[in-house]
Amino acid sequence: PEEPVLLAELKPGRPQRYDWKSSCETWSVAFSPDGAWFAWSQGHCVVKLIPWPLGEAELCKTSERKGRSGKGEARNRGAAKEKTLECGQIVWGLAFSAWPASAETEPACAVALPCLILATGLNDGQIKVWEVQTGHLLFSLLGHQDVVRDLSFAPNGSLILVSASRDKTLRVWDLSRDGRQVQVLSGHVQWVYCCSISPDCSMLCSAAGEKSALLWSMRSYTLIRRLEGHQSSVVSCDFSPDSALLVTASYDACVIMWDPYTGEQLRTLRHVPLQSALDYSSEVHTSSLRSVCFSPEGLYLATVADDRLLRIWALELRSPVAFAPMTNGLCCMYFPQGGFIATGTRDGHVQFWTAPRVLSSLKHLCRKALRTFLTTYQVLALPIPRKLKEFLTYRTF
């Protein structure tokens, strides 16, 4: 694949203030599941909500995908306008809901249609939940005692929200029941950095400043297993689109790919320094990872590390297929329809990069379809050849 090309860059609209509250880092970026909205925490307690595709001239020029990303949504939204959400606190985590599955699951929206929701995790432990169309505040969820670092909605439209906090807990909220707190998950002994719900809504992975990630059941809210293998703090995690793989990224400069059903380590992706990228003197942690995410079709991964590189990895290969130089990267996220990646930086900027566009093979599409509803154990029990089982369980790398 070609190297990622910078399509556009967004910068905070306010001058930086030099007090302790000024924090302008973009710790979180998010696309709505239909690709119609983009949100970024641009520091200064502000979240920008931008209708997609961007009105950026650079993006329009270089991207013929503009018209493809949700034509229907664009019509439905009419002339949707950019919104600024004043959150009153530094914003760390962001997550869009899936569209509610039916009218019955609709929260207290001001519109008759099921509405799209954005949850924001704040510095004081609050979670503010906003209606995207209007920019109205729907709920303030109280319970966490410290920074809400990350948020994840159940992808099935049930309006179940999981939050990860520096108070070392995860909390489960039901927004269809006025934001009621359903469960508190305790088990971490350090700040929780990241939480990710599997696309089939059966599992939850959480990463804290510990060498192991925790895997939870989303049905019983109990701990399934600890995933042990990293040498330093695990800071980011993501499931593949078929829920059959889980990746964790750590300050040890490694991404580990796991089978979440068996707990088996399938492979390790090591972030080897590129000599040309930086002058590596005695710096030990220049490759500390910040973020990892799967591409929408499940054939690529993107990682952001402290060595000033965005890397793109192909699922079958052990070394990156493409690099892009980026300074102070903190987070990355693929556009839901593929084709590009958004990254957030410590300077409060957001950058949009081209990503390899791929036509999935029929083999991969079949595997993805099967693994969406079959666990590893169910695949292994099928009366099919061993080679086929290995392919279906991602053991043919």
TrEMBL record:
WD repeats lie at residues 118-140, 141-176, 185-226, 227-268, 282-316. It holds the Pfam family SOCS_box. Gene3D superfamilies: SOCS box (1.10.750.20), YVTN repeat-like/Quinoprotein amine dehydrogenase (2.130.10.10). Keywords: Repeat, Ubl conjugation pathway, WD repeat. It comes from the Eukaryota. GO terms for biological process: intracellular signal transduction; protein polyubiquitination. Residues 361-397 form the SOCS box domain. Pathway: Protein modification; protein ubiquitination. PANTHER family: WD REPEAT AND SOCS BOX-CONTAINING PROTEIN 2 (PTHR15622:SF1), WD40 REPEAT PROTEIN (PTHR15622). This is WSB2 protein. It comes from Jacana jacana (Wattled jacana).
